[in-house]
Amino acid sequence: MDMTAHVAPKSNQLNADDLISSPRTIKVTKVSGTGNSDQPVAVYFEGDNGKPYLPCKSMRRVMIAVWGADAAQYVGRRLTIYCDPEVAFGGMKVGGIRISHASHIERRVTMALTVTKAKRAPFVVDPLAAEKPAGPSARDRLYAAAREAAGRGVADLAVFLDGLDPRAVAALEPISDELSTLAAKIPAHDADGVLTGDTPETDDDRI
User: pTM of the predicted model, to two decimals?
Assistant: First the structure.
């Protein structure tokens, strides 16, 4: 059992506590205003479950530094965010969300951010590796293999289906008619490669 699901804070936004177990890379889907002067920006992302990332002023400055001021350009870009336990509020360390990596930058970006009213410190954001293109899904691979078998004829399709797990056979149901039609178009051959129903040529046939 994954215990993290049972300690998630009840909130309408992503919290630092949500990232205690590990950093998270998010892909931005929308950036909008909240109408809240304390947290005026909401960064929505894939799989946010209605809990957007509300970056603090320092992290908003980071996003501008790495991506520019036009938030419309952020859509489709990615950030790695993590819980920094050293973030203090009201003199107490309460933890906060920080950005460690960003896509669409070619090299490390270093900037000075305010730590306290009297102190600024360097803050570093590293480039995020490009997303690997997604390969064919398991369903796509299954469909391709089934079509290949059907392309060899009814007998080969039957052998292919007999070797599948029942769940895989069920997954092929949406294209079952297609497979049957395709296989039926292929002339049947015997083990010697002779068309079924054909009579092999004799010497008399060639006279």
Answer: 0.60
